[in-house]
Amino acid sequence: MISVVLVDDQAVVRAGFRVILESAGDIEIVGEAATGPDAVDLVRRVKPDVVCMDVRMPGGDGLAATRAIGAERDDAGEDAPAILIVTTFDLDEYVFGALEAGANGFVLKDTEPDDFIDAVRRLANGQGLVDSAVTSRVITEFARRSQGARSTDAIAPHDALALESLTAREREIVRLLAQGLSNAEIASALFVETSTVKSHLTRAMAKIGVRDRVQTVVWAYRNHVASASGN
After folding, report:
1. What pLDDT shows up at residue 53?
2. Which phi-psi region, left, alpha or beta, contains residue 100 (left: φ > 0; alpha: ψ -120 to 50)?
3. What does pTM read for this prediction?
4. Rounded Cα gap, residues 221 and 137, in angstroms
5. N or C: which end of the chain has fewer CB within 10 A?
6. Nearest-5° angle of CA 61, CA 6, CA 206?
């Protein structure tokens, strides 16, 4: 059973999400919160698999809560729940803010119920996702930001160590992933089996300390493994 916490300042929205998700049969709502700080406290207590997080809420927004949940995970050396941002806003500032805060996925509130359920399942299984309406913009914007910051942004010491630990093949696969290629497309480009790509990517993600493809892309651009030119 996948345990989920719902975070939204509107009770009617939380009620709707509960009905949709619990209709799946393999998803259980273990708590609800109406503010970011309450969400952090709740997650600390119930330790869900997935948090469905709104972005803008009075009394503490979802981005701050996402950062806090991730920081507690890092400090304790424990796995944090996957965070799925669920919002009416597809504006770039919210998408990039959420992903840079450590969110693992992003969907819009008008997504179809089956797609919402699928998103929760994917995050629970360690797969990140971004709504198809904004995926291409995410890749393009991270590339642009990477190009603009390349000469001034220093790589954090722990990221530098992780980068050094990657093999040449792992680094290449991460770079191609950050360009938006699927496992099958990476395999075709490198003339290897798709299963080989998956194995290399799994090892690379473990080394750099991320749990899914979305955060791998964020890491790749932040640490200059990928660039706007694709090199």
Report:
1. 94
2. alpha
3. 0.74
4. 14
5. C
6. 80
C-alpha to C-alpha distance for 29 and 27, rounded to whole angstroms: 7
Domains and CATH numbers, the chain: 2-131 (3.40.50.2300), 139-222 (3.40.50.2300)
pLDDT digits (tens, 9 = 90+) for 34-75: 999 999 999 999 999 999 999 888 877 888 999 898 777 655
Please report where in the chains the tokens 């503010």 appear, as a residue.
35
Task: Note the pLDDT tens digit of each residue in 70-79.
Answer: 777 655 555 6
Q: What's the burial of 10, exposed, middle or buried (CB within 10 Å: 0-12/13-18/19+)?
A: exposed
Question: How far apart, in whole angstroms, are the C-alpha atoms of residue 179 and residue 193?
Answer: 19
Cα 200 to chain centroid, rounded = 20
